[in-house]
Design a protein that fits this description.
Length: 257
């Protein structure tokens, strides 16, 4: 049985973590499947991805049965394994299409890490987040750059150290979650985001994602050339020209189905 289920519905691809018996905890096989999927996205025709979890929870983080077995690995094997996990987060983080997280139940440890690499997260009002690693004698290392970028240093110092679980509404205050809904409203809210994203231009989206990460944390003067080059490229592109012309001629943009 596949550990992740990938279903395409036109330009929308739905990726569902599929180990409900362990609350979708990820081991090396899930990591390999998710990384492979992320690497297959460019050129696939997909324009929006939705990441969800099967069963009671979104994701209980790294599989503790798998991680506890590391004691029998050499230091080198152990680090190689952790690098594979890092590569998975990196591949998801740099997808050229929007990644929308559909969070219900628990999103703990690496599950909160997965939320951190989504562009948009919608969570149910009873969802629970947490960087729980320190409660287990470990720490949120691999996910830390992605998490800190979203929640900031002050919250990271609190939440990595207390390892306390926190609510969807706290996650929203921290910028980890964009919308909180009832369970019944979760899918309609996701669908509304998906519809909105499909009316934005694909190359503009991919360019915006790259640009956000290239300019963030840098002084405006230092990135002025990069931002000028970026708009200069997009406004003369076929997509940019097509989109602006459609607006001026009062018709839908070419990428709007
Ligand atoms: N790794 C491996 N197995 C896990 C797991 C994880 N991260 N999280 C849950 N499981 C397993 C449990 O051991 C249990 O196995 P069992 O049926 O053989 O006893 C099964 O999944 C169901 O878990 P359970 O705790 O009974 O389910 P629940 O719905 O009551 O609670 C959670 C779900 C996710 C809230 C709870 O399991 C939990 O807190 N997990 C730990 C999450 C965590 O701290 N992750 C950080 C990892 S770095």
């Amino acid at each position: 049985m596949a550990l992740i289920e990938v279903r395409s519905d036109g330009p929308v691809v739905r990726v569902t973590l599929n180990r409900p018996e362990v609350r979708n905890a990820f081991n090396e096989h899930v990591i390999a499947e998710l990384t492979e999927w992320a690497q297959s996205v460019p050129g696939s025709g997909a324009r929006v991805a939705v990441l969800a979890g099967e069963g009671k929870a979104f994701c209980a983080g790294a599989d503790l049965t798998w991680m506890s077995k590391m004691v029998a690995y050499s230091g080198e094997e152990n680090e190689r394994d952790a690098m594979a996990m890092s590569a998975m987060f990196q591949a998801l983080d740099t997808l050229p299409i929007p990644l929308v997280g559909r969070v219900h139940g628990a999103a703990l440890g690496g599950g909160t890490g997965l939320a951190a690499v989504c562009d948009i997260v919608v969570a149910t009002d009873d969802a629970v987040f947490g960087f729980t690693e320190a409660k287990l004698g470990i720490l949120p290392a691999v996910i830390s750059p992605f998490a800190i970028r979203k929640i900031g240093i002050a919250a990271a110092r609190e939440l990595f150290l207390t390892a306390a679980r926190f609510s969807a509404s706290r996650a929203q205050q921290l910028g980890l979650v964009h919308a909180v809904t009832s369970s019944a409203e979760l899918d309609p809210a996701i669908d509304a985001y998906v519809r909105e994203l499909l009316t934005s231009a694909p190359e503009a989206i991919a360019g915006a994602k790259k640009m956000i990460s290239a300019v963030s944390g840098r002084p405006p003067a230092e990135v002025a050339e990069l931002t000028a080059q970026t708009i200069a490229k997009h406004r003369v592109s076929e997509e940019g020209q097509g989109g602006m012309r459609a607006f001026l001629e009062k018709r839908p943009a070419p990428w709007v189905a």
